[in-house]
């Protein structure tokens, strides 16, 4: 056997050994932790029913210890029905597709209402390279954590006089501190090395100044994590030129929405980026970037929506529910399908249907 053959053989042996090592470090549940957990399911609008159905199929194939309570909610409703909120409060966990948000017309976003009603104050989007998916930049692994309840999305708008509208950006010390604490706690628990605060305090000196002051105070309690700050316009430029410099980013509401979608575009597109919204008592998992984007009508008609983002979000949900081995199996299967490149939807350069991707993921489950 030549040198190259020996190297290949030794690499495969090491990989096999590492795989066995991973399995030997086990999760020790408490008695009763294996009981099926209820999860509220909101298919939503547009591609929502397609991608949530993909999750249902994969969960059934894995025999995951959960069951869904499904509710029809649509973006043109005036409010989220109380029975849906009651279900989420009972289950504490929800999986949802996108809800169409009317543009203008005074109709508020149900996505925003849901976050406020359940106090889901932290939005988390994980943007990272997937092996087999070509991107302009390598080594991207960014977590964007944005404040989810106030800022520009406070919803306080009124017409002062005809033709003049006043929109209030609300920033409070309480909300700024708790989102900063969540970001640093996330970094600490996930072995992340740096937290970057994104702001516009050079112009909005009081509002964003308060946000920065809160981040600085919290940072002093985590000396092992590097802390820095960046102005939001420079942040966007740095993201598209050197995204590998960012690790965890903490932002006010609007900036986080823009930064997360930019980072998602750099790392492979919104169709593959997982995310969720979490508060002290409840969590809602959905497509990470452009969660309110319900897709194009053609995707729905041809049934070619990309289910990867929501599948990865559901893996986050499984880990949140303390079912780590199921989360690992699902993530590994999705990554295998992407790496093989045979079944890819149009946004990833292929022409596969949603169902073909789902079937491929199920076939790759260990």
From TrEMBL:
It holds the Pfam family Iso_dh. Residues 38-361 form the Isopropylmalate dehydrogenase-like domain. The keyword Electron transport does not apply. It comes from the Eukaryota. Keywords: Magnesium, Manganese, Metal-binding, Mitochondrion, NAD, Oxidoreductase, Transit peptide, Tricarboxylic acid cycle. One of its GO terms (biological process) is tricarboxylic acid cycle. This is Isocitrate dehydrogenase.
């Amino acid at each position: 056997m030549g040198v190259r053959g020996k190297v290949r053989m030794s690499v495969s042996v090491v990989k096999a050994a590492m795989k066995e090592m991973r399995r030997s470090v086990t999760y020790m549940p408490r008695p009763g932790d294996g009981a099926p957990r209820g999860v509220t399911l909101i298919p939503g609008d547009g591609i929502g029913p397609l991608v949530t159905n993909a999750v249902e199929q994969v969960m059934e194939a894995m025999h995951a210890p959960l069951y869904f309570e499904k509710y029809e909610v649509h973006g043109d409703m005036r409010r989220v029905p109380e029975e849906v909120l009651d279900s989420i409060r009972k289950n504490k966990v929800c999986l949802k597709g996108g809800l169409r948000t009317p543009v203008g017309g005074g109709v508020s976003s149900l996505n925003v209402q849901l976050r406020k009603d359940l106090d889901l104050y932290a939005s988390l989007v994980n943007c990272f390279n997937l092996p087999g998916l070509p991107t302009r930049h390598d080594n991207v692994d960014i977590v964007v954590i944005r404040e989810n309840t106030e800022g520009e999305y406070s919803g306080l708008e009124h017409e002062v006089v005809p033709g003049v509208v006043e929109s209030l950006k609300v920033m409070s010390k309480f909300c700024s501190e708790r989102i900063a604490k969540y970001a640093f706690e996330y970094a600490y628990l996930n072995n992340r090395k740096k937290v970057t605060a994104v702001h516009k305090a050079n112009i909005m000196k009081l509002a964003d100044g308060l946000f920065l002051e809160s981040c600085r105070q919290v940072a002093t309690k985590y000396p092992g994590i590097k802390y820095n700050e960046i102005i939001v316009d420079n942040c966007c430029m740095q993201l598209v030129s050197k995204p590998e410099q960012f690790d965890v980013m903490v932002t006010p509401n609007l900036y986080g929405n823009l930064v997360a979608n930019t980072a998602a575009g750099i790392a492979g597109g919104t169709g593959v980026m997982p995310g969720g919204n979490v508060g002290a008592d409840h969590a809602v998992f959905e497509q990470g970037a452009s969660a309110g984007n319900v897709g194009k009508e053609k995707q729905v008609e041809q049934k070619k929506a990309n289910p990867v983002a929501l599948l990865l979000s559901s893996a986050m949900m499984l880990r949140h529910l303390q079912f780590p081995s199921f989360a690992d199996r699902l993530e590994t299967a999705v990554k295998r399908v992407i790496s093989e490149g045979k079944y890819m939807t149009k946004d990833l350069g292929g022409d596969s249907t949603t169902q073909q991707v789902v079937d491929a993921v199920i076939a790759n489950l260990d």
